[in-house]
Amino acid sequence: MEDIFVGIILLILGVVAIIGKLAHKPRYIHHWFIVLATVFTAYYAFGELTVFETGEINQNPLYLSVGILFLALIISRFVGENKKIIGFIGIAFPLLYLMLGDTTYAFGGGGFTGADLLKTGVLGAIVPIAFVLVFSLLKRFGFVAGDNESTLKLSIETGFLFFFLFGVSIAGFFLAGPFGLFVAMVTFLASSIVAGNVVEEGRDTAVPFGLSMLLLLPLTVISEVGEADNLSVLQGKMFAGLFLGAMLTVFHAAILSWSENVSGWKSKLLLLKAMVLPILFVALGGMLYFMYESFGGTSTVIAMLIASALVIPILHLVFRNRSFAVATMLIGSAILIVPYLKHETEELSTEIEGLDTTTQKLVVVGEDGAEKELNMLDLSEAKGDWVVNPENSNLNFTLEASGSKTKGKFKSYEGTFSVPEDWQNAEMNITIPVSSISTFNAIRDESLLSDAAFFEAEKHPVITFNVKGVEFSKEEYLAKGEFTMKKVKKTIDVTFQFIGKGERDGKSFIVLKGSGSLNRTDFGMTPDPGIGDVVNFEFQTEFLAK
């Protein structure tokens, strides 16, 4: 529900920016827009800040950062052109992080303290102050005069912008991880808001970079919500997203610029297009995923955000202050749309028509000779010969590596399961056609099937799993079976539960649900850290009576 709320608020902010054409409004409206957009984006991106030692959610660093922005905004209202020295108060903003004390906070696996945020904040606050100093010195010593003043201002502004991008951001990330980037941006914006009352370009420097950072902040959350399979920009669908994001940002700025040169219904039509365009591009980029698996999905949406973040600072030099809305509307629409772009792996649910999950529990004899009832159904209740029903059976898998997650499934498989009077002698034989694999990317699937580093489906068309004998382990059954892939045979462990027995359309059936893992390199496949070598799989199989 919070995700929906944040997404809607960001969309509203974007719409207000377009309708109001904020480039023509007083300076403080620019600031309010940036502050509010930053608040909601940051809350979405860093809503799970925790205390490192206890793991309890504690958002004090986030609240303090937001407070710094609002404090700078309030102070800026009382700073006039004749009080230039007050502009340098921005350097004092990072000192507020000392209020966090020695508590260690965590986000994204790394820890940071208030002292780390202080260092990061100082780096961010120095940039606009240094800009003001450099430009003031150049002007005082006569290097800036007459016609070349605005040109030189622009050059210095651009230089500091990229200095911040490649210097301070990297330092902030090393000091406090993803949250360090956010803190550096907050103190940079806070310092710029105050300094903007001294030298106008101090404010203008903050605008494009602030919007760029807003686009980049929630990438991790959006990728997790949408289960992005790979964030590598080398993927074809990432390139498509990068192109769409850059084109969208340019079009958006051009439309807002054109709307100022016309009046009446033409201006209103252009503004309407500007409001619809970001949502349309995010929806189009994602929804095409369902039509053509090699394009679209969460990865494309993330690439669009990255491209737009890179283009906004450059575009700012051509179309002054025309990209306010695209940043928030892209994030807002991504937050609302991305949850619907997840992979199509079926959830393993025990809600099956006719299934009885209350059959007899397994009773075993303990070491003390006493009988003990376990919290698992007795497999002897499944006595008989069974055959896989592929229509009601699912086999999903996941590969995970640094910065990468690939999900997939085998769309069909077949096999038998025989349970004698003594269930411990049960036998299972499963055959999986390699050609039934799907990783929700047609180009990748074709490569997996044909490439010698993977399946080589023409030479090795099936995967088999044969089990002779079952034992119980804690609250599950354990099957040690012979797994054969690419003619390599290895014994792997699969744990499963007997979910229950039922009858449907006059036919008896049983359901097993379980999981396991294997290392694909053990079966002749080539290691690849970017893809991942350990395959985790889960299944839910319905067997019909023979």
UniProtKB/TrEMBL annotation:
List residues traversing the bilayer.
Answer: 6-23, 28-46, 61-79, 86-108, 120-138, 159-176, 182-199, 206-226, 238-258, 270-292, 298-319, 324-341
Domain named Lipid/polyisoprenoid-binding YceI-like: residues = 385-544
Q: Name one Pfam family in it.
A: YceI
Q: Does the keyword Membrane apply?
A: yes
Identify the domain of life: Bacteria
Q: Which UniProt keywords apply?
A: Membrane, Transmembrane, Transmembrane helix
Name of this protein:
Lipid/polyisoprenoid-binding YceI-like domain-containing protein
Q: What is the lineage of its organism?
A: Bacteria, Pseudomonadati, Bacteroidota, Flavobacteriia, Flavobacteriales
